[in-house]
Design goal:
Number of helices: 16
Number of domains: 3
Number of strands: 18
Strand content: 15-25%
CATH architecture of the largest domain: 3-Layer(aba) Sandwich
CATH topology of the largest domain: Vanillyl-alcohol Oxidase, Chain A, domain 3
Shape: globular
Radius of gyration: 24 Å
Strand order of the largest sheet: 15-12-14-13-17-18-16
């Protein structure tokens, strides 16, 4: 009986081995190549696949060949080696907020390495640094850092992934005090086109350190982690909100143009304008009494608000205030998909009254719901850093123009054409030549110069050095020579 049982066990194991071999024989080259991946691999025939490629923008949609939820650096290396071996396109997805879905490759049939599970956050309170995995979302980062008494300057949307955000600049409500997120990167780990894990900082691969901090969103390799410089959270901050009559727009921008650049660097402001309303959101990195004093030069020149609010709170509570999502969606970020298209501009000398009228009239007549945001720059954000490829350092404010919420494809196509036509004309007449690469725009002409300025040719040289066969590419990636 024992010998028969032993024989059955042996036969069972032989059958398992045969079954495994049959699976390997019948598996596609892609599934075979990725078989050693420790994380999850999800293919288009999986019933969960459609929900996993749904992110913030519903206007553009692509279907990858596979989603690889990398568990560690080795999974990223394996994925890259498989892409090279099988001559497949590959891209990284950190958060899924690329306006043109370049996190899915910007086209179909791309191998997507999703970094969601590379999400460690290790804080060194003594050194005031944090190692942050590239799969983290901003809401989680703000939550964990603030619990330890720290912050990094970054954006206001909790579900944005730190990877693409920081590599393309990364601006937010601490930007005039502490600069862009990219400015606060001390070092990175990146897997290159050969599947090699590189250390990147000012001394090691310094040319790549320059390229990644401003132009690194997917063109040079897959960044898997960052070390950031941390800043101590103030004991209290003050969130500020002001409402104005829309007819006061000219007077408000006179104050914004003239007084905005001179304001205390603890202040960041963002003007919002649509066809019906005019308002300002702002943050002061300090208590309400100081905030009111610091805002006096601006408010004395601005029109009288119809309402104003100075709310003293913790820094993390201010993150919740300006996220405009339920508090639980800040600490556990998720996408809120909708249809939209965005344009962006940098303004160096302040918009003229003619420019304000032109934009105001457009917002009143465009065929879909459209608004403009004007983020006050200056302070530390405008300090030139020769170790960074981020070149937008001389602007008073940046503009984001967003059209959204159309009801069908025909209306959406019409709205996007109106935005594109208006944006091209508006930029040629009233703003600087440049646009913000984090508000990536597939329809932008001469994007090479508008995003990267005089750094573009240097970026091409660095790209050619680290990725000569152009493995990492998407419709607006840094190209190689020739």
């Amino acid at each position: 009986m024992k010998s028969m049982k032993k024989l059955n066990i042996i036969l069972f194991f032989l059958w398992c081995i045969l079954l495994i071999n049959l699976v390997k024989v019948n598996a596609s080259p892609l599934t075979s190549c990725l078989s050693s991946i420790k994380g999850q691999t999800v293919y288009p025939n999986n019933k969960t696949f459609p929900s996993l490629i749904l992110d913030e923008n519903l206007y553009v949609n692509y279907t990858p060949s596979v989603l690889i939820y990398a568990a560690n650096n080795q999974d990223v290396q394996t994925s890259i080696n498989c892409a090279t071996k099988l001559k497949m396109d590959i891209t990284a997805r950190s958060g899924g907020h690329s306006y043109e879905k370049y996190g899915l490759g910007g086209r179909n049939n791309v191998m997507v390495v999703d970094l969601t599970n590379i999400n460690e956050i290790t804080i060194d309170s003594k050194a005031k640094t944090a190692k942050i995995g590239a799969g983290n979302r901003l809401g989680v980062i703000y939550d964990k850092l603030s619990q330890a008494g720290f912050l990094i300057p970054a954006g206001t949307c909790p579900s944005v992934g730190i990877g693409g955000h920081a590599l393309g600049g990364g601006y937010g409500f601490a930007g005039r005090k502490y600069g862009f997120a990219a400015d606060n990167i001390i070092s990175m780990e990146m897997v290159d086109a050969n599947g090699k894990l590189l250390q990147v900082d000012k001394q090691t691969n310094a040319d790549l350190f320059f390229a990644l901090r401003g132009a690194g969103g997917g063109s040079f390799g897959i960044v898997t982690s960052f070390v950031f410089k941390l800043h101590e959270v103030p004991p209290q901050v003050t969130s500020m909100q002001f409402q104005f009559r829309r007819s006061q727009v000219q007077q408000l921008f006179t104050a914004y143009n003239e007084v905005g650049p001179t304001l205390d660097n603890n202040i960041v402001l963002s003007v919002s304008l649509d066809k019906d309303s005019l308002s300002i959101d702002g943050l002061y990195l300090g208590p309400a009494k100081n905030a009111k004093d610091a805002m006096k030069p601006f408010l004395s020149r601005a029109p009288k608000p119809t309402s104003s609010n100075f709310k003293q709170e913790t820094f993390f509570d201010s993150v919740v205030t300006f996220s405009y999502v339920p508090p639980n969606d800040v600490v556990k970020p998720k996408h809120h998909p909708y249809f939209f298209k965005a344009k962006s501009f940098f303004v160096n000398k302040g918009l003229t009254s003619e420019a304000i009228d032109t934009l105001s009239n457009f917002l009143s007549t465009v065929s879909c719901s459209t608004y403009a945001l004007f983020d006050l720059l200056g302070g530390t954000a405008n300090i030139v850093d020769d170790t960074s490829s981020f070149m937008h350092r001389d602007s008073i404010y940046g503009i984001q123009l967003v059209g959204s919420d159309w009801k069908n494809k025909a209306q959406g196509d019409k709205c996007v054409k109106e935005l594109n036509d208006f944006g091209k004309n508006f930029q040629s007449k009233f703003t600087s030549y440049f646009s913000y690469q984090n508000y990536i725009d597939r329809d932008l002409d001469d994007w090479q110069t508008r995003y990267y300025g005089q750094n573009f040719n240097k970026l091409v040289d660095i790209k050619t050095k680290y990725d000569p066969n152009n493995l990492f590419k998407f419709p607006q990636s840094i190209p190689v020579k020739g």
